Amino acid sequence: MPSKPPPIKKAPKKEPAKKEEEAAPEPAPAEAAPAEAAPAEAAPAEAAPAEGEAAPAEGEAAAAPPAEEAKPPTPPPPADAAAPATEEPPAAAAESPADEPTSAPVDLFIEDKNDTSVTIMWSQPENIGPTGLDGYTIEVCKDGTEDWKAVNEDLQKSCRYIIKNQTTGDRLKIRVVAVNAGGPSAPVCLPEAVMVKEVADRPKVRLPRFLRQRYVAHVGDKINLTIPFTGKPKPVVSWTKNGEALDTKRVNIRSSDRDSILFIRSAERDDSGVYEMCVKVDDFDDKAPLTLQIVELPGPPASVKIADTWGFNVALEWTVPKDNGNTEITGYMIQKADKKTGDWFTVLEHYHRLNATVSDLIMGNTYKFRVFSENKCGISEDAAVTKDESKILKTGIEYKPPDYKEHNFSEAPKFTTNLSDKATTVGYSTKLLCSVRGCPRPKIQWMKNQMIIGDDPKFRQICVQGICSLEIRKPGNFDGGVYTCKAKNDHGEVTVSCKLEVKQPIVAEADKK
């Protein structure tokens, strides 16, 4: 009994040691393990003397190992040994904030769903921590229960996940948990349970652009047209031709979740028509018409005949073919053949009229003609041949040139552009212009104040192609006056006049001084 008070008195000395250990850096948690072990081993050592004091040797032997292990200056008392053991793990957790879990993910929502799966998306947590994020766990449970089960075996790295293999009609509650070294975070849940059912979407036929107009194919071609569509749940696809059900012996229809294929192994002209595709979901439907035209070579013109023959020319006429090949006739090809040789030569190609004139035939030869029809598939295999023949007769030909009365081009002179009044300055050359016409070409004469200028070198007279000009070189004070241009030929004469004013140059007063 007297041995127990001393440990109780030593307990106050342990408190500052604990504070030093708590205030110490991170190595302190590592020393906690031997500190915990020392009191654990010291307890049985002290319990032995309490039962009997007759074995002091054994008590000394038992006390010796704790003396060696209790190297810290203040070993914990046995009575308080359990208390520090329970208080140290929270202290260690407080000293390592890196092991804290992240915050909950955010913005969880449904991206898509169908009758067996649900696709969800979310955003990463706002607070991830220095250790980073290991991944996510996706948990589900049926509505009305709390039996949460993880649907992903491994941590999900991305923020999108498809929950597969669900039962149609189930209502599921879904939540996502972020996981890191500190453990799982708080979950983020969808606000409401999700019904595992395909989202209803109005059906829509996506007719390709090349099928929005008439689709043309040749007889014998293989038709394979794919028309995509959309709609949820899977739309019911149906086809009609000209408002009636399809002949499944001729046309095959294969439909998937995304598109429908119209297939004809070998097209015939009877396959032409307006096909209509209809997709229906519940009470909603959408239709798209498709016009299919199967064409082939046309037949020959119904008839052809020689309408007239004159000189070296033959006029032909024909009628449209009875069979146009299920498309419009784009033209005709006309050929001729000499009866002597029998060889056919093309005269006209891509001709659009129902009549034509064949020219440049050889005198004395006999000709027959034939006409082919043409459409977008090509030229007809057969031709319509004229029953009659045309013979170019040998007749005397004498060329008589027509009598032409010679036109009289004689004309009296006439000014088409008159002279205009003009002003110039002393010392600055100027030019007077006018234009005249007449046949024969009129003779031009210039005058100044009714006086003929003649060959005065001060003046330069030019007349080219009816344009008459008079150049006055460096006029003086006395070169002003009335200038006249006279045009004269055998049929008359005409004059035109203008006034020329010659001004003195302006001299500044400073130059005068």
- For the record, give the distance between the C-alpha atoms at the N and C termini, rounded to a whole number: 149 Å
Count of discrete structural domains: 5
CATH superfamily of the largest domain: Immunoglobulins
Helix content: 10-25%
Shape: flat
- Total strand count, please? 36
Q: Which residue ranges are poorly predicted, with pLDDT under 50 across at least 5 consecutive positions?
A: 1-96
Radius of gyration: 59 Å
CATH architecture annotation of the largest domain: Sandwich
Mean pLDDT: 81
The biggest sheet, with number of strands, parallel, antiparallel or mixed sense and barrel status, is: 6 strands, antiparallel
CATH secondary-structure class of the largest domain: Mainly Beta
* Secondary-structure-derived class: mainly beta
CATH topology-level name of the largest domain: Immunoglobulin-like
Beta percentage is: 35-45%
Number of helices: 5
Question: Can you describe what's shown?
Answer:
The protein is flat and about 130 Å long. Helix 2 packs antiparallel against helix 3. It folds into 5 domains: 5-95, no CATH class; 101-195, Sandwich (Immunoglobulin-like), CATH 2.60.40.10; 201-295, Immunoglobulin-like (Sandwich), CATH 2.60.40; 304-391, Immunoglobulins (Immunoglobulin-like), CATH 2.60.40; 411-503, Sandwich (Immunoglobulin-like). With 513 residues, the chain is mostly beta strands. It is 15% helix and 42% strand. Strands 3, 4, 6, 7, 8 and 9 form a 6-stranded antiparallel β-sheet that branches. Strands 21, 22, 24, 25, 26 and 27 form a 6-stranded antiparallel β-sheet that branches. A 5-stranded mixed β-sheet has the order 11-18-17-13-14, with no helix packed on it. The longest helix is centred in the first third of the chain and has 25 residues, at 27-51. The chain is built from 5 helices and 36 strands.
